[in-house]
Design a protein that fits this description.
- Helices cover 44% and strands 5% of the residues.
- The protein is mostly helical.
- It has 3 domains: 148 residues, HUPs (Rossmann fold), CATH 3.40.50.620; 186 residues, Serine Threonine Protein Phosphatase 5, Tetratricopeptide repeat; 170 residues, DNA Cyclobutane Dipyrimidine Photolyase, subunit A, domain 3 (Orthogonal Bundle).
- It has a 5-stranded parallel β-sheet with strand order 4-2-1-5-6, with helices on both faces.
- The chain is globular and about 80 Å long.
């Protein structure tokens, strides 16, 4: 496919796309030691190459058509580049896992007979920018063609498109061969409509791809959506499943990253890094989820507990977003389990909805609203993040649990991200751009195409309802209902005012009172304003004063 003409952007993060070679579950053990098999150590790699092919850090799919068979005329380039480590402050595990997986992937390619040029973070020839490295490599190999897969992030897509336009050699951009949909399909589906709705998109996808539908295109199980059955709190039984991931010791690689001057936050867990580093490990994790975890996923997918950090979530998002796993194979296995009665239909449908529905929908939404989407700020919120976003040291037990887990594991599930951390950020009036940067950095699975709409649109409602139908906010009552976070907290979940009152309560009512002009006509939250109308002016003034006081001392909460 010939180069298209994408628009301009700046430099960018650990990227997105896909690949096909035989996966090697044992490759990770030697990955760190073998990265410098570049042109100096490999005479074959030093020879000229007709085509230079770039593989980004989230394009680690060994099934991509690029890799069907080795060809001497192609050199595959992977690079640990500072523009990707530095464009936002990343969690230590995110940097470490992506680099380790890239090294593993490079080893797999070499073992399958492909020519690879790997630029490690400490390679003296490695330059800070991706395009500077590409210039040097095109000259080194005398390449006459440059190829790359569709980046999933706007900034990288524009950066590489701008770069390709100025090259004097032939350039081609090809599909990453990963998603169900093309970038533009969601926008085409909703063309001419005043509102996008995920449920409309989801049903369209179910029928089009024949997922959980019968021959008459009716939903298996009698309904399209079992969401109302997926909202139970977790009583502690059944027990949280054991972690099926394979731990790796990447202490040496971590020290290399630190010595190179790369900044990060969160716990690296370098001696026990548990995220999958290749397709084989990812498939093992998928199989373990389908058999041991999916049966309970549906009931407890919205539950939270300080005693169980993963509960019944798949932990597959990192493998999927780096393209080790295809969404089709993940959906297919979940559907098969549901149809065979090995998992409740509500669990299978709820899991499939997250992938075939929300994941594809958010990607289409992202491409339809870029560039500029990150600048939305409906409520004009400007407060900086409290210091405990970087430490987890807050007296609010729920926030300490959700943020502490994020810093320790580089992961939190969707309700922790939306209804605890994001909820507080919106109620308190934190700057949505700062919230976006934190979410993009802290989570192992966070790439801008999926993170930005979820943060700015779904979590912070900063886009005024382009993505979500209402602000997802609550007082302490919801958090208490869905978790054990309020038990033992220094703040009282029932109090609205005073030193011991849960901050969520006053902030919740204040948020609605001060944004009445923007929200009162929203049909999904009319009950809140009916309750506000019944309050006396003195009561409203009192909780607003409490909220003002809280916002003035966020670091001390």
């Amino acid at each position: 496919m010939s180069m298209t003409n994408p628009k301009k952007i700046t430099a960018g993060p650990f990227t997105n796309a896909k690949a096909s070679i035989s996966a090697n579950a044992n490759a990770s053990a030697g990955a760190s030691a073998n990265v410098n098999a570049s042109s100096k150590a490999n005479p074959k790699a030093a020879a000229g190459a007709g085509t230079l092919r770039l593989i980004l850090g989230d394009q680690l799919n060994p099934q991509h058509s690029w890799f069907r068979q080795p060809q001497d005329g192609f050199v595959y380039v992977l690079m640990e580049v500072r523009q990707e480590t530095d464009y936002v402050l990343h969690h230590a595990q995110k940097i470490l896992a992506i680099f380790a997986a890239m090294r593993d992937f490079a080893d797999q390619l070499r073992q399958s007979g492909h020519r690879v040029h790997y630029l490690a973070i400490d390679d003296p020839a490695n330059q800070p920018s991706m395009t500077a490295n590409l210039d040097a490599l095109i000259m080194q190999y005398g390449a006459t063609v440059f190829e790359y897969q569709d980046p999933d992030e706007w900034r990288l897509d524009a950066q590489l498109a701008d770069y390709a336009r100025q090259l004097k050699i032939e350039c081609q951009k090809v599909s990453s061969e990963h998603f169900y949909t093309e970038r533009h399909e969601a926008a085409e589906l909703f063309a001419g409509r005043t509102k996008w709705l995920m449920e409309t998109f989801y049903r369209h996808m179910r029928v089009r791809h024949r997922v959980l539908v019968d021959d008459a295109k009716k939903p298996v199980g009698g309904q399209w959506n079992f969401d109302t059955e997926n909202r139970k709190s977790w009583p502690g039984v059944p027990l949280e499943p054991s972690d099926a991931r394979t731990p790796h010791d990447h202490s040496v690689l971590w020290q290399t990253i630190v010595s190179a001057g790369v900044k990060s936050f969160g716990e690296p867990n370098a001696d026990r890094l548990a995220w999958p580093l290749n397709r084989t490990e990812a498939l093992q994790q998928l199989d373990a989820f389908i058999v041991h975890v999916l049966p309970n996923f549906g009931d407890f997918q919205d539950a939270m507990s300080s005693k169980a950090w993963r509960l019944f979530h798949s932990l597959l998002s990192f493998a999927m977003n780096t393209k080790m796993l295809s969404p089709r194979e993940v959906v297919s296995k979940a559907e098969a389990a549901g149809r065979a009665g090995e998992a409740p239909m509500a669990a299978a449908e709820g899991f499939i909805r997250q992938i075939l529905g929300w994941r594809e929908y958010v990607r289409g939404f992202y491409w339809a609203h870029m560039p500029g989407y990150a600048q939305h700020n409906l409520f004009g919120h400007t407060l900086p993040l409290p210091s405990w976003f970087w430490t987890g040291q807050t007296k609010m037990r729920g926030m300490a649990a959700a943020i502490g887990q994020s810093l320790e594991q580089a992961h939190a599930h969707h309700i922790q991200r939306l209804m605890v951390i994001g909820n507080f950020a919106l109620l308190a009036g934190l700057d949505p751009a700062e919230v976006h940067q934190w979410y993009l950095g802290v989570y192992i699975d966070a790439f801008e195409w999926v993170e930005l709409p979820n943060t700015v649109g779904m979590s912070q409602f900063a886009d005024g309802g382009l993505l979500a139908t209402k602000p997802y906010v609550s007082s302490a009552a919801y958090i208490d209902r869905m978790s054990d976070y309020c038990k033992g907290c220094q703040y009282d979940k029932k109090l609205r005012e005073g030193e011991r009152a849960c901050p969520f309560n006053a902030l919740y009512w204040d948020f609605h009172a001060r944004n009445k002009d923007k929200l009162a006509n929203n049909p999904r939250i009319g009950m809140v304003y009916r309750q506000l109308e019944k309050m006396t002016p003195a009561a409203v003034q009192s909780f607003q004063a409490q909220a003002d006081s809280l916002r003035g001392k966020l670091d001390q909460l």
